[in-house]
Amino acid sequence: MRRLWTPAWIVRHVAMVVLVLGFLGLGWWQIGRATAGNALSWGYAVEWPVFAGFVIFVWWREVRHALRGPARPDAGEPADAGARPAGRPVATATRPVVRRPVRVARGPATADVGEDADLAAYNHYLRWLNDNPGAQPGDYPG
């Protein structure tokens, strides 16, 4: 339960209470207008409590998600699953890994003219970023 009393969660709790009370107050106000003869206000009198219910639903879903904690690895994973580099996405039955398409040149290959020093350094940087997926650009040792 300590996870729900961080400063960020306290702001979420307060925002939820303020929004729910505000939406219910607006619904009550619309009921008063509707009984005074404004027929359109009956729709709003129903709509505002629905908004309050939606806020409660989202808040409750986020509380359950926070209490559930980080995702645990499936028991059916192969034994060598720990050998995979950290930060690599793992495909599961409910969350497939989607990767960007690879573009392949269809024209004839150009002759290798030799690499520019800046281009070689940039390619080394890109290789390093690819090999270290969780790293930030500022972590680059080169």
UniProtKB/TrEMBL annotation:
<keyword id="KW-1133">Transmembrane helix</keyword>
<keyword id="KW-0812">Transmembrane</keyword>
<feature type="transmembrane region" description="Helical">
    <location>
        <begin position="9"/>
        <end position="29"/>
    </location>
</feature>
<feature type="region of interest" description="Disordered">
    <location>
        <begin position="70"/>
        <end position="91"/>
    </location>
</feature>
<keyword id="KW-0472">Membrane</keyword>
<feature type="transmembrane region" description="Helical">
    <location>
        <begin position="41"/>
        <end position="60"/>
    </location>
</feature>
<protein>
    <recommendedName>
        <fullName>DNA-binding transcriptional regulator of glucitol operon</fullName>
    </recommendedName>
</protein>
